[in-house]
Design goal:
Largest sheet: 5 strands, antiparallel
Low-confidence stretches: none
Shape: elongated
Number of helices: 3
Strand order of the largest sheet: 1-3-4-5-2
Distance between the termini: 8 Å
């Protein structure tokens, strides 16, 4: 299953070449990731992180075409690529119809809320994530 998040381009996202600065792509992916995880846990806002604390340990982005300023939002699609013992991998991409503007892979590790020490994924957490596993 794939989650879709509408990402609006802000005037401040535009660089001197009149397209979105590459660093801002990370912001769009982050906004979509947080919204996605809130839906996965069926909790409002960033509640996922309160119930299932985790940290982003790696993210790679492939830039495929420039994003320009416009009023309609671009869609950021997010899904689960893999679920491990203490980590999981999310895939995502920024799209407009059939056009793909960027692709990202994000690895998150489950941690203890207070100590931030790596922990195993719980059964409920694993179940919530596997519902969005892309086949």
């Amino acid at each position: 299953m794939t989650f879709s998040y509408p990402a609006l381009v802000r005037w401040s996202d535009i660089d001197s070449y009149d397209h979105v600065n590459n660093v801002r792509y990370f912001d769009y992916f982050q906004e979509a990731r947080i919204a996605f995880l809130a839906q996965v846990a069926e909790l409002p806002d960033a509640g996922f992180f309160d119930v299932y604390p985790c940290v982003l340990v790696s993210q790679t982005v492939d830039y495929l075409r420039p994003i320009v300023l416009r009023h309609p939002p671009y869609d950021v699609e997010v899904w689960v690529d893999a679920v491990g013992n203490s980590s999981y991998t999310l895939g995502s991409r920024i799209v407009d119809g059939d056009a793909v503007y960027a692709k990202a892979t994000s690895v998150l590790v489950a941690v203890e809320a207070v100590t931030h020490v790596k922990r195993a994924l719980g059964d409920a957490e694993r179940s919530a994530l596997t519902r969005y596993l892309r086949q």
